[in-house]
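Model: You mentioned two targets. I'll fold them one after the other.
Researcher: Yes, keep them separate.
Model: Target one:
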Amino acid sequence: MYFACPLQSAHNLDRYYVGLTSDVERRLEEHNAGKPIHTNKFRPWKLITYTAFLDKSRAGKFEVYLKTSSGRAFAKNRL
């Protein structure tokens, strides 16, 4: 399974991150430990939701969509 996971900064509620992983818990721990350079200054992160896919390609396409302006609007209103 592959998961598209939007995260939100617990301290800066306007900061979001969308990623793709096969292990949601491990990836969230990595973000909160400061391992990814792009997200370490806005930690801690909280998981908003995740969407599961059997196919990595479809999960990747959904992740890319969530990073677009229409995808961000969708996530803000629906997720």
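Model: Target two:
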Amino acid sequence: MEQARSNDVLILGGGVIGLACAWFLLKAGRGVTVLEQDRAGSGSSHGNCGTLTPSHAMPLAMPGTVGTALRWLLRPDAPLRIKPRPDLQLLRWLLAFRRRCNWSDALRTTAAKLPLLEASRKWIEELVRAEQLDCEFAASGTLHVFRDPRELERARSVHERLAMHLPPCEVLDAAAAIAREPALKPGLAGAILHAGDASLRPDRFVAELARIVRAAGGRMVEGARIEKIVHDGTRIARVATTRGEFSADEVVLALGAWSPRFARDLDLRIPIQPGKGYSITYRRPALCPRMPLTLKERAVCVTSWESGYRLGSTMEFAGYDDTLNRTRLDALRRGAAEYLREPEGPALVEEWFGWRPMTSDDLPLIGRVPHLRNLVLATGHGMLGVTMSVATGVLVSEIVTARQPSLDIAAFAPARFN
């Protein structure tokens, strides 16, 4: 049990966001303690597909999304599943999400997300090279693959409509797509190439972030499950954990999908729902994709590294249900088999799930909490936590040290929900 002690900056959460914040605060000369309920990087940072995608600036709440979701409701293996249950917070979240499924909000959200995504993609590459992070980073681009010509045309027209707020892309016909990626089966409609995207192995990336944070003097307290966050009305006074109590001059909340559990303690609205995603990791197949793929009609992401091969994605709103849903995993396998010559590797390494912190407006919460002067939020990054991680770390360090933020953060203000 830790003795109660005061810290300069206390970071709640040792995932990719918390570790990125820790690194840039240390670089700014601040003392840092990170509290993590398990091991650093063991949450949703561990088993995602590791793509770095400015191309994903478009929100999930798009015109037509609600109709698609309704058609999927009766399919247990659909890319989206909402588990029926009495949950008032989920109902409110879904209603807020539905209100945003229009072109005006889609345009505003895309315009707000793209600068954050592009800056973070660039800064991640710079960090990997400067600190020699062993995480299999590759400036590979990504390929969105379609079997249905109507879906390809729909995606192309959406991109054209939002083009001023999206990175450039290239539409490929079926022959060009297979020439670019021989692992694909015949029978495609075509693909969209996003050359500015990149990838890395996310579990190694967070392990490397934890390593450099420790090497720079950061203190990591693992196995510290937060039990209560106590404030006096104007500032966070202490944080009670299973490893003791902690206090700090500044507190950064980077708890991802767990953030809403402390909203009442903080007199805050943190409208995040845990969006459960799945992945399956294999040893590399003989015919392995050269670049990350999104198999669009089945919403399956495929990523390969020298050290392995992963199928991932799906979205399940089932609260904090911690069971491994075999139907969801089988859907990943079946989806990959429709598009790939060799959809699975020769040996299974890991079946995994994790909870993504999904906000109803598809934007993160980054900024100070107005009524608690020593609390900064860095949460709600949805499906793009790895991509947004380094930019979030830079911005949080600038907020804490009272420097001008490198990017416009008005759209990410926590006060927008209160």
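Researcher: Noted. Anything on target two?
Model: The mean pLDDT is 94.
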